[in-house]
Amino acid sequence: MREAVVAKPGKLRADQLLVDRGLAESRTRAQALILAGKVFSGEARIEKPGQMLAEDRPLEVRGQDHPWVSRGGVKLAHGLAHFGLSPAGRVCLDVGASTGGFTDVLLHHGAAKVYAVDVGHGQLAWSLRNDPRVVVRERVNARYLDAEQVPEPVGALVCDASFIGLATLLPAPLALCAPGAWAVALIKPQFEVGPNIAKGGVVRDAAVHRAVCDRIAAWWRGLPGWRVLGVEPSPILGPEGNREFLIAAIKE
Fold first, then answer.
1. Are residues 133 and 46 located together in one domain of the fold?
2. 213-249 pLDDT per residue, tens
3. Looking at the DSSP assignment, which residues form a beta bridge with residue 159?
4. Is residue 39 within 8 Å of 19, Cβ to Cβ?
C-alpha cells in the first residue's frame, strides 16, 4: 500500500506554489507548465507538479507564457493580487514604463488612464502606444516629474526602474498622488546597495535583501500621509537572477 505524501512544514507542491506566486492562473495550468518543462528554479528544471518545494524557493516560467507585453507584468499582477489593490477607474502613473508590462496590467484591470513615463524612448509596445487610455511621456526623468507633465491627480502609482534607488527616484512622482492613492514599486537590491554589490551585479545575501527592504519601508513610512502595506518577494527573478521585492503603500 502506498503511503500518502505529507508536506513538510514550510513546503508546498510546485503547482500550488506557481499559483500562489501569480505565475499560473490555476493548478491545472501550473501542472501543464511543469510537464511542458517550462518551470525552473535557478538552472534546475522542476520535473513533477507534486514536487515539494520550500515556500521561498525561487521559481520562474521560461518562454513566453503570460498575457502581458513583457514579463514585468507578472510581477505587478502578483502584487495587485497579494495586496488586494485595484486600478479600476483610476488615473495611474507608471514610472519606468519601458516596454509597458506594468501599464498593460493596469489597463487589463480597468485603469481609466495611464501616464507611461520613461527616461528612454521607443520602448513602449506598439499596442499600448496606440491605446487611447495611455499618455506616453518619453525622455522624461521621473525624478523631476511635475504637474505640467501629469496634469491630474494620480490615483495609483507603479514603478519598475533600474540603476537608481527608490528614495532618489520617487519623491516627485509620489507628490502627484491624491489622498486615497496607492502605490506599488519594485525594490531592486542591486540598485540600492551601492558599492557593496557582489561580483557580477547579483546580490545573493538574504540579510542584505532584508536590510534593503527594511530601509526602503522605513523611508516610505516617513513620507507625510503614506502608510506601508508590506513587502512581498517578486514571483520571478530579475535580470541575472537578482531577487526583487514588491512594496505597497497607501496615501491617507
1. no
2. 999 999 999 999 999 999 999 988 776 778 899 999 9
3. 95, 185
4. no
